[in-house]
Amino acid sequence: MTQEKIRQAYTEYVLENGKQPESVYAFCKKLKIKEEAFYEEYSAFPQIESEIWKAIFIEARAATEREEVYQNYSVREKLLAFLYTWIETLKKNRSYILKSYEGFQKPIYTKRNVQLVDFKASFYDYVNELLMEARETREVEQRPIPQLMQRYPDLFWAKTLFILDFWINDTSKAFEKTDTMIEKTVNTAFDLLGRSPLDSLFDLGKFIFQNRK
Amino acid sequence: MNSQESIPTSKVARATQFAKAGVKVGGNYIKHYSKKIFDPSLTKEQLHQENAADVYDTLSNLKGSALKVAQMMSMDKNLLPRAYTDKFAMSQYSAPPLSAPLVIKTFKKYFDKSPSEIFDKFDLKAENAASIGQVHKAEKNGKKLAVKIQYPGIADSISSDLKMARPLAVQLLNLNDAEIDRYFKEVEEKLLEESNYDLELHRSVEITNACSHIPDLFFPKYYPEYSSKRILTMDWIEGMHLKEFLDTNPSQEVRNRIGQALWDFYDYQMHTLRQVHADPHPGNFLMTPDGRLGVIDFGCVKVIPEDYYNNYFALINPDTLEDEAEIQRIFWTLEFIVEEDSPQKRVFFSDLFKKMIELLGRPFNSNTFDFGQEGYVDEIYNFFEYVSKLPELKDSKAARGSQHGLYVNRTYFGLYTILNDLKAEIKTTKPDWLTPKHLKGELV
What's the pLDDT score for residue B260? Predict the structure, then answer.
């Protein structure tokens, strides 16, 4: 019995019955496996959900990076491309996603949801890579407040969840509004993190302070 | 060109853009008058220039309908001070493009393939901006193609955009409320049509086929297999825009040939097809050094109703001007004169519109017409500027002239303006029933 099979059976069950199985016991009986076999792979249902969210992320990321143009993109464009692909991947599983979303604590971008922990960890790895690259390309300004810089991944995570929330409630044709939302959020983020007049002002202030008589 | 990464689509975001323009224009006035205290020689022209720059910057950030409004304002030169129009004319050539991932995403949505899979070569950086989309260069089987991509969500934002452009337009265009409502309604309809690329494809194919016999005129070929609701693919055609073309100092003969092609193109559409490429702004025409004219962008096509056509063009024939009863009948049908007008007003407006018709119809009153002649186009501008300031018109509650007139007049202004810039001398071919008697005599 592989992880993959349990995951598939679980998704099917949720899609067909509109809710989680009553218990691990009932689920295993239906699947004709021993309960121990289940516990070897997962400790509870939310963990399966977490795996699914992560799998979607990995699929989207791989698809994004497969595009040949991807390597020539700026970091801003890379993140844009990822988010578009991610939403496309979610779209393929929309029914399941909507069901899973029902079980979330809301608003999802401030509350912690166990179903998203694995996705979150992978997302942070990805964003940290992107941010490192962005610092090299100067798309993200090195600021002298480490406490602030450390929070950047949190910012992107919150934005991503915000987009998810928007997409779930989006009623526009072909989710066109979500596309616009993605362009805006990512651009705002990078405009905030990039070099701004405030950075110049700070720099000037520092210089004047250091050279005061 | 810096990529613009987003179109501000939410109403609030767009509203702030307009507010910005308002604030800046206000600021310019303050600047202007404070400067003027110290330097009385400053002219209004400089102020207009600064205003135009700010208004243009704001509008070009908005894209879509707002860009269209800018284009329309620059077309109706007569409605605006020169400085505004020169600046607005820029909007016909360039506005900042969308991000590359969104371009790819749009392709995937409609073809399930990325542009690099469909074409041998595809330039992710947009070549230039059309009013509601942007144009990319591509190549397939050694053929250069132009791929127009529509901004997502643009169709939804048309109405809310126009609503916000309204106060600005009231101020700039100096129109009365009734007229501006009519103006905006017609513009909105056309914009919605324009955002439908299926329709544009259909019309492009239809008109280009029908006009293929006109000498010195060429069109791109359209590719339905690479087109969809939001994407339109056609041949990339070579040629220069009007300004560049004039900079090369073309000979009179070449200019005449191009002008003639343009005239024949419109003559045929107007009188035979009864549907017309109603967007004759310089950005839609490409000119070659050997005197040929390429026509692109059939987004804005006006179908002319039979009834309107008969009445409007009856007026253009100078013979009609002698038949007072007939003229009065037409003025009523076309709503130049309305129920509420007092008898004095009726006389006043009749005279005014007769003058307008004489002016616009002048090229029809001879066999050849030199559009380069000093003063003709200026005379039209001055006349309309005078008209737009008339208190009788401004205070009038009614909108005058049928709404079809908006596009027909606009088309002729645009046509005359380009011909004037070309300084072309044209054989003004026209259908037989429009030819005045004295010209028929000449031919015999």
Answer: 94
